[in-house]
Amino acid sequence: MRITCPHCGARDVQEFTYLGDASPSRPDGLEATEAAMFDYVYQRENPAGRHRELWYHGAGCHAWLTVTRDTRTHAIEAVEPTKRPKAGTAA
Amino acid sequence: MSTKQPFRTADGGLIDRTQPQSFRFDGTRYEGFAGDTLASALLANGVRLVGRSFKYHRPRGILSAGPEEPNALVELRAGARREPNTRATVTELYHGLEARSQNRWPSLAFDVLSINSLLGPALTAGFYYKTFMWPASFWEKLYEPLIRRAAGLGRAAGHEDPDHYEKAFAFCDVLVIGGGPAGLAAALAAGRTGARVILCDEDFRLGGKLLAEKREIDARASSEWIADTLAELAGMPDVRIMARSTVYGVYDHGIYGVIERVNDHLPIPPAHQPRQRSWRINAKRAVLAAGAIERPIVFAGNDTPGVMLAGAVRAYVNRHGVLPGREAVIFTSGDDGWATARDLAAAGARIAAIVDPRPQIDAGLTALASRIGARVLTGGVVSAASGGRALRQVTIRDASGREQTIACDLLAVSNGWNPTLHLTSHQNTRPVWDEAIHAFVPGQMPAGLSVAGSAAGRFSLAQALEDGARLGSQAAADCGFAPTVDAQPPKTDPEGVALAPVWRVKDGKGRSFRGKAFVDFQNDVTDKDVELAAREGFKPVEHLKRYTTLGMATDQGKTSNIAGLAIMAEQTGKTIPETGTTIFRPPYTPVAIGALAGHHRGQDFRPIRLTPTHQWSKDQGAVFVEAGLWLRAQYYPRPGENDWLVTVNREVLAVRNGVGLCDVSTLGKIDIQGADAAGFLERVYINGWKALPVGKARYGLMLREDGFVMDDGTTSRLAETHFVMTTTTANAAKVMQHLEFCHQVLWPDLDVRMVSVSEQWAQAAIAGPKAREVLRGVVDAQHDISNEAFPYLAAREITVGGGIPARLFRISFSGELAYELAVPADHGDAMMRALMAAGEPHGITPYGTEALGVMRIEKGHVAGNELNGQTTARDLGLGKMMSSKKDFIGRLMAGRDALVETGRPSFVGFKPVDPNQRLRAGAHFIGVGKPAVMEHDEGYMTSVAYSPNLKHWMGLGLLRNGASRIGERIRAVDPVRNGDIEVEICNPVFVDPEGARLHV
Fold it and tell me: Which NCBIfam families does the UniProt entry name for this protein (chain B) (predicted)?
């Protein structure tokens, strides 16, 4: 596989580390419940098809990337930096 | 005709008769020529019998002239370079080649185990499952060794491979796979556009099937067209031609695995050169022009040496100048086999008969037969071949069912061709059946790959040239290269491709023969095995494969799958496409593990990292230990110290009583800056950071989100918005990745930046009561490092050695007055030498990781053995560090019922009741007087060391309810080393529990 890193260009998959589903969002703060955190830590969809997932470009720019990939074909639809500029600031 | 090579033709062929090459097969010396394969050289010498079959030990000869060869597998080379299961048909002959036949005992000609042939009924399909049912224990002791002895292929060398292998990467616009007519045309068309082209061919000579044929292109010999094409390609700077290179796999996103046999054609690779090179080629587009593989026919005795594929016979005659036989019968179900008759006759063989099952034959072919004096039997079949170790006769049944025998020493069989489409199904797509050509053709293709010529089922030379030119040009256009104005595709001489395949020949009454008729030569699978599988319900193609082993082993059914399917289809009343096909997986042909490993073996399996102070440690006589990728100084033996423990005890006592020096450069170091840096640390560590004053260090512990401990270390605040974090050596990269995840994914709005500086700083621990005096000798005078000005946990940027920037941390792993001094990595060596010089009056002693470990156990500090991914902060006695005033990674999950249960094993110390006894890490705790079984297991010892201060062994461990059991006795049971000793549970801090020494 090759992943086109938005910073580094098309690079071999060996430079990246896979984490998993990009959709769960961490229940932050002291108000968060154990049940919500449990879901965040353990519950994952495992779709056959389009999947948004997190990859880490550890042997490159160290960016965490959100990769949209078809799990059946490995076709990659989009690769975006996960960290977005703050709203209202220039990129 | 040479008497040395009795089956060599007088002239012709693409061999160099001026370069004789002598070789040995089974100890006998023979001679061949440069340009031969081992197979062609053996045939030139009249060697027909080259191996014994896998199960029945049947005599076997050479079937093919290519990579599909199922029979002619030999052990190539000798000693440590011995390679089993090497196909003689693709082994380039070299002077001094040594090969041996396989799976025979005591000799190839007389093989005791050929009696297996008579035991046939016991060895049929599924025999493993049926014959060796019980008792289960017999498998390991009796059945398996027996089967392994009786059935098998070649032997591995059994020694370390003395040769080198390399890995390499390449990038191109268009990769052309196969250097036959389609591939050459594709490379030419793509190359002419200016695209970067790589052409790979597995053969040592380019030309593919054309090398085996006498054909004309634009009214000239095809060899001239090949020469012109290669010359033009050679003149293109962006075209690379790789011969001896097999594309063995297609991977995602245009990555192709290629094995280049750089020096397999030499006895020993030249100095500093690899034997093979494993390429990973990244191609934007690829054209598959891998040709086709001819199909045998299943009939009794079809494995007799001397029964060969008709196309292979042409290759030996036309390319190698070898007559595989002098008295030939041709058995062909299509026009193609007739060309073999023509070429054999032209080379001087007698064609006894041409047997073609088709009732009507093209008049041109029958005219050819009369020209060469061959009998023609239309509507007939060859029903049997016999002769044992070499073919002597074939039985022919004519259209009316009458049988007759014809003496011959060669039977050339032609049953059409299967496209070599293996690579097209490597992405899990299935080939589809093409009724018009009676073969599977590529189905859905991997992205970026197109297929040309025979590999696409377009078998004529004209189609190959046309496809190649069109698809090569298209592939380049897809990469943005404008097509060149092309001349008309070259004209070729006419050829017939009509075909009516016959999958197997039964006896006159429609039954399979009593004699063995092979579907899969390499696995000894017969037509009866396929019938048996059908009768017993193993009808789906995947079941058929596993039950009979059809299509397995080194050739992966290249010549057998289709006949197996055809017979199964016949048994079940289905068509071949309804019966299905197996999907091919990489590799296309066997790949040596050594080539995939490249240089990554032995000591070079992983890279080695050396600290900036490595040379200094070496000069001090250090013994090094691997810590992850790092080499760290383990201990520094002095002359006369013959036991490592003597050395380590000396180093520990030197620190506790004087001063020691230890390299800690391998610790992970992460520079963290930004307005939200402190807030960021609050979220990743369990303890508080906002109140940490500038110029101070603090111990921190971080959890994974699931609540278990991830890592620990000290982090120092160098300025309001500037921290430097240290991690354990082992987790440096993991923590960096984690912090970046926390920042980029979880809290992108935090104003913080971080960078790993592990390699930018050399760091040393100076520990012991005299540490300050030593340090005074290297720290520049303006910096006050007195106890008052620079107290315990102070952390500041200073200068040393006259202005060199440095960082000084008053932190201690040993429990003594101690500092860690960091300087830019380039100064690391100088720092150690300066500290040694400054410490000389104080008896400074270098110490390694062993002494470091002893002292941390004496102090009850947790390390890797305790931070093992299964412990919580509470388990380690650090639960109180968890802040309740803030959210942090792992907070909620660490509070789960099971993780706060009081009965969980928790961190305590242990000392032997008998102080002379040695403790062992890994021992499990069992109550006194209880049997040592799992249900009485109460925890285990994580770390042990001998304390030269206490003069007995001490241990750290995790014990159920540990903290509340101080003073109790328990057993440490170590069945692996016959250990079972009584220990006392104690406070894990063995030395200076009040911590007074830290503050002096």
Answer: soxA
Closest to B737 (Cβ–Cβ): which among A26, A56, A75?
A: A56
Q: CB-based burial of residue B130 (10 Å sphere; 0-12 exposed, 13-18 middle, 19+ buried)?
A: exposed
Per-residue confidence at B128, pLDDT binned at 50, 70, 90?
Answer: low
Cα of A30 to nearest chain B Cα, Å: 5
Does the domain spanning B512-574 belong to CATH 3.40.50.720? Answer: no
* pLDDT at res. B2: 46
Task: Look up residue B880 and give its two tokens.
Answer: 């109180």
Question: Which residues of B fall within a CB distance of 8 Å from A41?
Answer: 705-706, 893
d(CA B527, CA B525): 7
pLDDT score of B311: 98
Residue B419 and residue B464 in contact, taking contact as beta carbons nearer than 8 Å: no
Selected for mutation to probe chain A from B255, B744, B754 (highest A CB count within 10 Å) is B744
DSSP structure string for B651-670: HHHHHHHS-EEEE-TTSEEE
Residue B121 above 70 pLDDT? no
Asked if residue B244 lies in contact with residue B264, where contact means CB atoms within 8 angstroms, the answer is yes
pLDDT > 90? residue A79: yes
Which residues in B lie closer than 8 A to residue A82 (C-beta atoms)? 744-745, 748
**Per-residue model confidence as pLDDT tens digits over B10-23:** 999 999 999 999 99
CATH assignment, B297-414: 3.50.50.60
**Band of residue B447 on the pLDDT scale cut at 50, 70, 90:** very high
Domains and CATH numbers, chain A: 2-81 (3.30.2270.10)
Contacts of B733 in chain A (CB under 8 A): 58
B1-123+149-160 CATH pick, 3.30.1490.480, 3.10.20.440, 1.10.3720.10, 3.10.180.10: 3.10.20.440
- Closest-CA residue to B182 (of B456, B464, B423): B464
In whole angstroms, what separates CA B758 from the centre of its chain? 32
SS3 B232: helix
Count of Cβ atoms closer than 10 Å to residue B791 Cβ: 12
| Domain boundaries of chain B, sorted by first residue | 1-123+149-160, 165-292+419-479, 297-414, 512-574, 615-667+759-861, 670-757+885-893, 900-999
Q: Is A17 on the interface with B (CB under 8 A)?
A: yes
DSSP string, B12-59: -SSSEEEEEEEEEETTEEEEEEET-BHHHHHHHTT----EE-TTT--E
Residue B525's contacts (CB-CB under 8 Å, 6 or more residues apart) are B125, B518, B519, B548, B549, B550, B560, B564
Q: Does residue B38 surpass a pLDDT of 70?
A: yes
User: What is the rounded CA–CA span in Å between residue B61 and residue B71?
Assistant: 6
Which CATH architecture fits B165-292+419-479?
3-Layer(bba) Sandwich (3.50)
| Calpha distance B961→A6 (Å, rounded) | 52
The architecture of the domain spanning B670-757+885-893 is: 2-Layer Sandwich (3.30)
Q: Which two tokens stand for residue B772?
A: 């300050």
Which residue from A12, A40, A82 is facing B745, i.e. has the nearest CB?
Answer: A82
pLDDT of the residue at A88? 47
Question: How many CB pairs below 8 A link A and B?
Answer: 67
**In whole angstroms, how far apart are CA B80 and each of A68, B83, B154, B491?**
48, 9, 14, 51
Same CATH fold, B670-757+885-893 and B165-292+419-479?
A: no
Q: Are B611 and B762 in contact (CB under 8 A)?
A: yes
Class of B900-999 per CATH? mainly beta
At B110, the pLDDT band (50, 70, 90 cuts) reads confident
Whether B115 and chain A come into contact, CB under 8 Å, resolves to no
Measured between CA atoms, how close is A81 to chain B, in angstroms? 9
- pLDDT given for residue B484 in this prediction: 81
